Amino acid sequence: MSCDVLTVSIQLQSLYESALQWSKVTDKPLKEEHSGVVYWLDPTTLGLDYADVLAEIPDIDSVTSVSILAGPLCVTARFPTGQACQAYGEGLKDYLASQLPTLSTNGYEGEHGVTFKIITSTAAAVSRMILSRLLICPPHSPSCLLPSAAKRADPKTKALVLEDPASNKAIDFFAIVGHRGTTTVKVLDASKIPVTVAVATDARVLQHSSAFTHINAATDDEGYREGLLQTVVPSDEAISVMTPQQLLDDLSISIDRFSLNPNLHPAHVVDHHKAWCPSAMCQDSDLCYPCQRRFLIEIATGRSASTTLMYMLDALPGVRMSGENKNELNAIRHMIDNFKPAEAIEGPWKHNQIPPGAYSCAAQRMIETINPPVTTVDGTVEEDDSNTIVGFKTIRLLENVKEGYEEKEMVKFITEMFPCARIVINIRSDVEKQEKSQKLAFNSPKSPPMDVDGLRKMNDRLRNIASMFGEERAYLIDSSEWMHDIDHLNELVEWLGFDRSCFFQDLLEFNTHDRYGNGKTKLELDPNCRYVGAQLPSTSNVF
């Protein structure tokens, strides 16, 4: 392929966007994108001393997880140093866990924050490497180089590539491909490089051969590639390690292997919607185009000024917000879960194949139905409503949803059913005042007030929910701040993609007087206020 810089840059961006989509169906520590470390092992990796690995992790007190990952070939492979790949991974995990006792329960589903996992899905592995806060590539780990180059062009996310002074292949690779300003190649002192030994002729080591490894293109029941590696050891082909140029030549192949099912594509994201959901992947079919409607979902806690925020958002041009709906999202989820099989069936349960993504339109139609546009007496809609951003608020999303796995499943459900949605998560950090407000307003056994500890816990859960949605899709805002400084609210307005002429000058006041009494209920915006295209916020520096 050509080494044209623009072409390579576009392909690296494609890898990054695919990583965002696969992250929605990949198990990983909750905060891996913000403060997690991924350490990758190839069968050709040089197994560094455990203490030297620990020394390469910067600002260790800020790290929330360390994930040692390897592909399935690691099960039988031996490093050039003679160490068994799997045994090395387990040993490194145990050593780091002993040195990092504060990470005891930070991992996925409460497991230890230091883990070693064999990942059979290439897409999941590449996604985690690209999106992790810090990716470390030990010497002679070619599979780690493309993810390093594809990491987001943001100085707050990093890749550290450790180079063997006798090799320089990583340096050559980045000299050809370049990267997005986030990768550092560190040439190790020769004393840090372990001694290699002769490898047995039957050892399974990674080689550059189309016959050696290929991707099983079968899809699972959600339409995603399984990504299972099938290994064939040729008898006559010489074992070799990919050169930098071979890695570059395989860049387009890697992107193709990493891509989602062909039915998942942004083809029906309306042009002016692309800024609202730039990475939305839509399971289009003749029955449903899930990304044709933009949605805005406000998730909050009771007595956090959620109604005021709802009306403020509703005042923006082209936005139609509605209020509480008895946790309709959860009801829709149970309805869809009640009838899950998508394949064609004969017999008493007969039905034709249900196309991937078709359930999205059922979910969206329900929300559109309970938040309709203004109609005439006979139900006629007199104006085109197709470009309206439809939204609602809910303070009950996490009712009967357990922490951890069930929260992640709820985020996955919303992301799949409403792929072109933005999420505003509103908390109230002044939980003492919120507790008093709830005691005054919530006096029914069906909606009892929460105490201070319960409110703090709920705020933590909502912060985790925001993290799971990701910064492109979700915005976390604190009413204890924006109720006293409207600039915080206007930062949200700008993130949503509205012109600065849309900035609010005054706050509305709903449910702020005597339990449910109102103050100011009318708002006038600058007549030049318009939607210009949503933007992405920068990530706070965790390390």
Describe the structure.
The protein has 543 residues and is α/β, with parallel strands linked by helices. It has two domains: 5-258, Glycogen Phosphorylase B (Rossmann fold, 3-Layer(aba) Sandwich); 284-340 and 354-502, Rossmann fold (3-Layer(aba) Sandwich). It is built from 17 helices and 15 strands. The protein has helices at residues 5-23, 32-35, 50-55, 85-99, 122-131, 145-150, 169-177, 244-249, 251-258, 306-314, 328-337, 358-370, 405-417, 431-441, 452-469, 479-482, 486-496, and strands at 36-41, 65-70, 114-118, 134-137, 158-163, 183-187, 213-215, 229-231, 264-265, 282-283, 295-300, 319-322, 389-394, 421-427, 474-478. It is globular and about 85 Å long. The chain is 32% helix and 13% strand. Mean pLDDT is 81; it is low at 199-242, 251-269 and 536-543.
What's the gist of this structure?
With 543 residues, this protein is α/β, with parallel strands linked by helices. The chain has helices spanning 5-23, 32-35, 50-55, 85-99, 122-131, 145-150, 169-177, 244-249, 251-258, 306-314, 328-337, 358-370, 405-417, 431-441, 452-469, 479-482, 486-496; strands spanning 36-41, 65-70, 114-118, 134-137, 158-163, 183-187, 213-215, 229-231, 264-265, 282-283, 295-300, 319-322, 389-394, 421-427, 474-478.
Radius of gyration: 26 Å
The largest sheet, given as strand count, sense and whether it forms a barrel, is: 6 strands, parallel
Structural class: alpha/beta
The neighbouring-strand order within the major sheet is 3-2-1-4-5-6
The overall pLDDT average reads 81
**Assigned CATH superfamily of the largest domain:** Glycogen Phosphorylase B
Number of self-contained structural domains: 2
Instruction: Kindly estimate the percentage of residues that lie in beta strands according to DSSP.
Output: 5-15%
Task: Assign a percent range to the helix content.
Answer: 25-40%
| Number of strand segments | 15
Report the top-level CATH class of the largest domain.
Alpha Beta
Q: How many separate helices?
A: 17
Low-confidence blocks of residues: 199-242, 251-269, 536-543
